[in-house]
Amino acid sequence: MRAPRVSVFGAGSIGCYLGGRLAAAGAEVTLIGREHIGSEIRAHGLRLTDLHGADIRVGASDLAFTTGPESAATADLVLVAVKSAGTPAAGVALAPVLGPGTVVVSTQNGLGNADTLRAALPGHVVLAATVLFNVVHRGDGHFHQGSEGDLEIEQHPAVGAVAPMFGDAGLPLHAREDFRAVQWAKLLLNLNNAVNALSGLPLREELSRRPFRRVLALAQREALALLAARGIAVAKLTPLPPRWIPRLLTVPDGVFRVAGSRMLAIDPHARSSMWDDLEAGRRTEVDWISGEVVRLAATSGTVAPVNARLVELIREAEAGGNRHWAGDALLADLRAQRAPRNPAGKRQRN
After folding, report:
1. What is the DSSP string of 65-112?
2. 197 lies in which domain range?
3. Distance between CA atoms of 323 and 47, rounded to whole angstroms?
4. Do 197 and 264 share a domain, yes or no?
5. Straight-line distance from the first to the last Cα atom of the chain, in angstroms, rounded to the nearest whole number
6. How many domains does the chain have?
7. pTM of the prediction?
8. What is the C-alpha to C-alpha distance for residues 19 and 79, in angstroms, rounded to an integer?
9. Are 63 and 88 in contact (CB under 8 A)?
10. Which CATH number fits the domain that encloses residue 331?
11. Does 172 reside within a domain?
């Protein structure tokens, strides 16, 4: 029986980590990305580590790298891992080359990327998945998983065909009927991406400081109020229900140090992908994270001033603005933006 063929369209941190883990487990993997990543992999291969001490090496000869989509023609599975802004172009590139029966899985942030790909790839199975852990690129082909988390995928008969290769790689897929609720739950957690990027700190250090956690609590409460007003379900992805997390975020540092570590393990190397984008001078995904809350508010006939301000501050940071906010200053700025009442008619706490 031949090895499964996998093409990863988008060889960034998530794409290289997932592709490398699949290659280490015996899949025939082709990474599709920018030439500077290809040069790095050809020189160093891949080193894949995690917070639990795993250290996996994949030699440069054990996987392929290309800048074009042609390998997708013979792939059993295509993982789309580009930034959300690149999804329409990914669909255009893949449409003429995908072979019949190829399953396409979006592992991207945000809510609508799989829908964009389905529109571009009629006749193909396109599934949405979400990666609930953080990966940081540490250079020289080294990609590090810095937090705990699973791979969740929407329920579909095609999952049975692709799940075994992920299980072999130690990355089991969890199929969910309530996948939209899972996406919203992840987005609530990802609202910290902007806060982390503006702090300039590693994730664990940022979350150890109460003012930054209070900022995240403001953003989450604003989103939760909008979701509740619209009757939109949010899945439980951590030991705490989503509506309880903002309360935990506002407790004193010592209490959070104990309770927070039980909810999610994060090692000192973890950074948000948005921080990584700012460091690299790339456009961030803030429009597909905090911006989703702003759009939800607009369709509800109201506003989301906290998340709108976070979008604005990230846009300023992309243009060279402040990327090293003090927690108290950022909290004061966002408190000044808040609407007096949320959609449920209750004044927000912080």
Report:
1. EESSSGGGGG-SEEEE-S-GGGHHHHHHHHTTTPPTT-EEEE--SSSS
2. 181-337
3. 29
4. yes
5. 57
6. 2
7. 0.92
8. 9
9. no
10. 1.10.1040.10
11. yes
Would you write out the chain's pLDDT as a tens digit for each of its 350 residues?
789 999 999 999 999 999 999 999 999 999 999 999 999 999 999 999 999 999 999 999 999 999 999 999 999 999 999 999 999 999 999 999 999 999 999 999 999 999 999 999 999 999 999 999 999 999 999 999 999 899 999 999 999 999 999 999 999 999 999 999 999 999 999 999 999 999 999 999 999 999 999 999 999 999 999 999 999 999 999 889 999 999 999 999 999 988 877 667 788 888 899 999 999 899 999 999 999 999 999 999 999 999 999 999 999 999 999 999 999 999 999 999 875 544 444 545 56
The amino acid occupying position 1 is: M
CB atoms within 10 A of CB 96: 9
Burial of 121: CB neighbours in 10 Å, binned 0-12, 13-18, 19+: buried
Alpha-carbon gap, residue 292 to 232, rounded angstroms: 14
